[in-house]
Specification:
Helix content: 10-25%
CATH topology: CNF1/YfiH-like putative cysteine hydrolases
Strand order of the largest sheet: 1-2-3-15-7-4
Order of helices and strands: EEHEHEEEEEEHHEEHEEHEHE
Structural class: alpha+beta
Strand content: 15-25%
Oligomer: single chain
Shape: globular
Number of helices: 7
Number of domains: 1
CATH class: Alpha Beta
Mean pLDDT: 95
Number of strands: 15
Low-confidence stretches: none
CATH architecture: 4-Layer Sandwich
Length: 270
């Protein structure tokens, strides 16, 4: 698995880029918190309207942050599409007719083949996954928290790419972005049991070795789901960058609670 490349654009925005996706000529990036216009505590590249008590960010600043992010990944003028994320396995198809602006419909994955349409998922510890098919040109952005991983939102997105665009897993490349690390993702026994029951038992770390409770390896679970969906192991890129442990680069709800902004993972055909 290839590491992600940390890049600072000329406009000051910092992103992480997948070598495999870049080789396909796909515009994409895992955003950080660096290079935007939002004030503290959402400083500065916040892509979500986080509702800290008395300190909400504004849609105008979020829109400007999105514009800067698209510019940084080499896609100025593209249409940024967001949806209301609900920790499920719903997949939404978006195209040139889909308006930008605030999210309006619900789901946890966006799929498109239209040029200039940027599929965007927002995270603050959950796993962002970006997928592209070299054969069909279809791309997907996926938001996978522990619930989404359990109900296999990644598999649902790959299936939608196949059914809607003729994409083939053998021709797909995927990248897993920054998320909460297994070393800090402590959960209760009910969550650990549900995760294991969904076929992800190998990604549940039992108590011991300094762990008082079970921990989840969501990065590993995302990779497992991609393999189950038919992607080749050498076509999966990523790096285990922990959002909780790196406050310089990443927002984290586990670390900061309601005072956390939202990171963005974006992908589109140029």
């Amino acid at each position: 698995m290839v590491s992600l490349e940390r890049i600072q654009a000329t406009n000051g925005v910092v992103t992480y880029r997948s070598t495999l996706l870049a080789a396909l000529g796909v515009a994409h990036g895992f955003g950080t918190r660096i290079g935007g216009v939002s004030p503290a505590p959402f400083d500065s590249l916040n892509l979500g309207i986080a509702q800290a008590p008395g300190e909400p960010d504004t849609e105008e600043r979020v829109a400007e942050n999105g514009r800067r992010l698209l510019e940084a990944i080499g896609a100025p003028g593209a249409t940024l599409v967001r949806i209301k994320q609900v920790h499920g396995n719903g997949v939404v198809a978006c195209g040139t007719a889909t308006a930008g602006g605030p999210p309006t419909c619900e789901g946890d994955a966006l799929v498109t083949r239209d040029r200039g349409v940027a599929a965007c998922m927002r995270t603050a510890d959950c796993v962002p996954v970006l997928v592209a098919c070299a054969r069909s040109g279809a791309v997907a952005a996926i938001h996978a928290g522990w619930r989404g991983l359990a109900v296999d939102v990644i598999g649902a997105a790959v299936a939608r790419m196949r059914a809607g665009h003729g994409a083939e897993p053998a021709a797909m490349v995927a990248a897993i972005g920054p998320c909460i690390g297994a070393a800090v993702y402590e959960v209760g026994p009910d969550v650990a049991r549900d995760f294991a029951a969904a076929g992800l038992g190998a990604c549940v770390l039992p108590p011991g070795d300094g762990r008082a409770k079970e921990h989840l390896d969501c990065f590993g679970a995302a990779r497992q789901r991609l393999l189950e969906a038919g992607l080749r192991a050498d076509a999966i890129d990523g790096e285990e960058l922990c959002t909780v442990a790196n406050p310089r680069d990443f927002f984290s709800y586990r670390r900061d609670g309601a005072r956390s902004g939202r990171l963005a993972a974006v992908i589109l055909r140029k």
